[in-house]
Amino acid sequence: MTAPLPPSITHVTKENFVEEVMNSDKLVLIDFYADWCGPCKSMAPTLEQFAAENPDVKVVKINIDKSPELMQAFGVRSIPTLVTIKDGKGLAGSVGAVPKSKIEELIRVSLQKLAITPAPKQSPQPPTP
Q: Which of 18, 83, 102, 114 could form a disulfide with 93 if both were Cys (CB 3.0 to 4.6 A apart)?
């Protein structure tokens, strides 16, 4: 049975994936997990603390046993797996139980990738006299 989550974390399934992840205006951190997974359980308090301290990031959990199609869509082969996504684009990921500092690093890398945008092409300007 899935334990209730704090309000700062959302359970996501294939039914609400588009609404909660793809349509989110925030950077989304996805935690792929299973109720039977020991490392997933040990990482849960760290993830909850991170979510509470970082309201700018939407933290969601996907139970791989209840949503295997999402696990397959993201190519998840081991759990826990963390993935960041924004505007439908996967940005960064991490496999295995990690400390909060690694989650923060994952977010920093993701935000840096979002900040890198190609410069707009400028049309040639006539020389000024």
A: 83
The one-letter amino acid code at 21 reads: V
If DSSP codes are grouped into helix, strand and coil, which group holds residue 85? strand
Catalytic residues: 37, 40
By CB neighbour count within 10 A (0-12 exposed, 13-18 middle, 19+ buried), where does 85 fall?
Answer: buried
- Do residues 33 and 64 touch, judged by C-beta distance below 8 A? yes
At 38, phi and psi to the nearest 5? -60, -50
Residue 80, preceding peptide bond in cis (omega within 30° of 0): yes
Q: What is the pLDDT of residues 1-55, one digit of tens each?
A: 455 555 689 999 999 999 999 999 999 999 999 999 999 999 999 999 999 999 9
CA-nearest of 64, 68, 53, 35 to 103 is 53
Q: Which domain holds residue 62?
A: 9-115
Which of 81, 69, 79, 78 is CA-nearest to residue 18?
69
Domains in the chain, number: 1
Q: How far apart are CA 44 and CA 40, in angstroms?
A: 6
